[in-house]
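Per reviewer request, we include the raw input and output of the structure prediction for the construct analysed in the revised manuscript.
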Amino acid sequence: MSIITLVGTQWGDEGKGKLVDLLAEDAQLVVRYQGGNNAGHTVVHKGQEFIFHLIPSGILHPGTLCILGNGVVIDPEALIEEMRTLTERGVALSNLRISERAHLIMPYHRLLDELQEQARGDKRIGTTSRGIGPVYVDKVGRCGIRMADLLERDSFEELLARNLEEKNLLFEKIYNTKQCDKDEILSDYLGYAEELKEYISDVSSIINKAYLEGDNILFEGAQGTLLDLDEGTYPYVTSSHPIAGGASIGTGVGPTKIDKVVGAVKAYTTRVGEGPFPIEELGPIGQRIREMGREYGATTGRPRRCGWFDAVAVRHAVQANGLASIAITKLDILGGLGKIKICTGYRYKGNLIRDFPSSIRIIQECQPVYEEMDGWDDDISQTETYDELPDATRRYLARIQELLGVRISIISVGSERGQTIILENPWASEKMSAER
């Protein structure tokens, strides 16, 4: 019996979907604890590619209960569309559960998100315009609408009318745009309620009961540590807490029940959207990494900004999450690049910085300090054991491990589930291979 939290350690897109799919094989529950359909997980399963936006990728395992926790914000239209797509591809959804405490994304949230981003001009944050920020604002402002409200028509209609009074005034007086129609929204959302009601449950009780019964439980976050509302590059962040501390809040499970935290670490670094990115490679190297790694957003299709591995940023994630181990992903993409660089520090006004700054202005003015290592030309995508990796690859991994001060438990060398080297089973205490 164990509870593992899997977190992203960079700016998201670290390959968490594959890792969730891998770890879910030994889990009875997989629980998403924050974010919304602004995130995407890509999984290659039996030669087929699946892209998930809300539903945990553990749904590909028929015996695994997959849960959307109370910390997730849900666009019911997007969720139903994702459910239909999966059903059409033969994926059963009988094991899906949705927290009755999860907040609903409403049409006025999406519209407000888009209008606010437009109003920022060249100071835009780079949101996906899916209403994520505005719904979290309403949640904190105590005027949000939850799944439980959706199941009670009178309550839902009253909350909707109250919120539209304020939102429509905002649209008319501030943004000079059309108002949202209450009757249209009411009709649409009552229809969504009929389609979703069988999945809506008190999931906190389900998870805690499973814990007492000795089940393996996997908590998964969306995005990454550097997009966390507090620990990330604020204000260029998401509106929730992807870090491990968000797992308890977003699931209703006390932190003392979580056994370990595993960090997903891409072998290089990417970021999508606006915000500081000290190690960004704008030339041929960045472009090659982008094309080789297919670094385009699973949800938006936006090209990701690419650069070498940033140990300064990931050390911050190790600290913020209390990582027990890390899973290195997309290691195969670095093959054939010649010399490989690792950012070991930042240079700011002549001073060497080893810790990730909290000031956006400072980060924007930092210059990366690189350590250069020999690369490898070998195709490692079919490598099955650590010892079979090229010497240069093992030296690269050892240096990352040394810089971060945390051991590597999993190495991903391709998109398929089988293209994975397990050095230590996160569900067990014993090592799965010889010490490195």
